[in-house]
Design brief:
single chain, about 350 residues, alpha/beta, seven-stranded parallel sheet, 11 helices, 12 strands, globular, disordered C terminus
């Protein structure tokens, strides 16, 4: 079986490819444009496997897609390529529209041109398409109405609708998943947890939007990778599955957990929670996301295996051991403001 993974050099994509090479016998083709957030080194030993190959291309490039499909003739496409940073979508929505909407359409059309009945399409999306929850609202299920509130989530919602439309109109063999906030090693240092770690290591204020009460459900990236394979290989055609870690935490709780781990690992600069700083909130900041993963647990037998309270310590340790990597990606010292508002803050997605 040959699997085409789009965005396979990204944070989640690389974790998925590591899982596919280590835990399955499939051949993997990684299609990635290698934009700013790509981290090819995260592939590790998977990149040297005889079952791995790489295609440097953009999903918006029709000619490149035709060549790749003709060359590799994939049995399964796992579509992860996307622009995903909310703050960047506020500053520049056009790139999100182009990649997440137009790119998905181009990929769907490539499947249609190259044996759509044969190829299975797994579209990987986000819980942000469902909008914002209040504290006492039930968690998102697969039937929750869409209500995106940022350019990023709107572009992902549109791509979800395109996949469903291609299924209904053209008979696309598809399955879909929507996940909660991922965390783990190799996450690009623009998302909440690596931003907090990076700022603390530099002795800079650890920025938290608003009052720090925005809540997210946290999912370890390795748990997500295992769930994605379950869905792609066993999920019912035309259905969607929500993937969550059953680990709702406020941004302040996450920051406190990071600080507690840093206090243990770098006691000479403790206490680190003295660096926590509240900054101007992001426009349209969703109050709460929560995923109900009951369907994937019941139907496919997947359960999150990582405990957030335990795993966050390992994640902080990993970032401390790999400081050279994340410093090469971003200069904390030269970045006093955050994207998306011009006043300083940390992404909560």
């Amino acid at each position: 079986m040959k699997v085409l993974v789009t965005g396979g050099s990204g944070f989640i994509g690389a974790a998925l490819i590591r899982y596919l090479i280590a835990e399955t016998g499939v051949e993997v083709v990684n299609l990635d444009a290698l934009t700013y957030a790509a981290t090819p080194e995260a592939l590790g030993l998977a990149a040297s496997s005889q079952r791995y190959s790489f295609e440097h291309a953009n999903i918006c490039d029709r000619n490149a897609l035709d060549r790749i499909f003709e060359t590799h003739q994939p049995d399964l496409i796992m579509h992860l390529a996307a622009e995903s940073h909310v703050d960047r979508s506020i500053d520049g929505p056009e790139t999100f529209i182009e990649t997440n909407i137009t790119g998905t359409m181009r990929l769907l059309e490539a499947v249609r041109r190259h044996n759509s009945c044969h190829t299975r399409f797994h579209h990987v999306s986000t819980d942000e398409v469902f909008g914002s929850l209040q504290a006492d609202d039930p968690a998102f299920t697969e039937s929750t109405p869409y209500a995106p509130r940022s350019p990023y989530s709107a572009s992902k919602a549109a791509s979800d609708h395109l996949v469903r439309a291609w299924g209904e109109t053209f008979g696309l063999n598809y399955v879909m998943s929507n996940c909660s906030n991922n965390y783990g090693p190799w996450q690009y240092p623009e998302k909440l947890i690596p931003v907090l770690i990076a700022h603390a290591c530099a002795g800079k204020p650890m920025p938290i939007y608003g009052t720090g009460q925005n809540i997210r459900d946290w999912l370890h990236v390795n748990d997500h990778a295992a769930a994605l394979w379950k869905i792609a290989s066993q999920g019912a055609t035309g259905e969607s599955y929500n993937v969550g870690g059953r680990a709702e935490r406020s941004n302040m709780q996450v920051a406190k957990a990071v600080c507690e781990a840093l206090d243990l690992l770098r006691p000479d600069t403790a206490p680190h929670d003295r660096l926590i700083t509240f900054v101007t909130d992001r426009p349209g900041h969703d109050a709460r996301y929560a995923i109900d993963p009951l369907r994937i647990e019941r139907e496919l037998g997947w359960h999150a295996s990582f405990s957030f309270d335990d795993a966050i310590k390992d994640v902080v340790f990993w970032y401390l051991q790999n400081e050279t990597w994340w410093r090469s990606k971003i200069s904390v010292e030269s970045r006093e403001t955050r994207l998306g508002l011009g006043g300083g803050g940390a992404s909560a997605t």
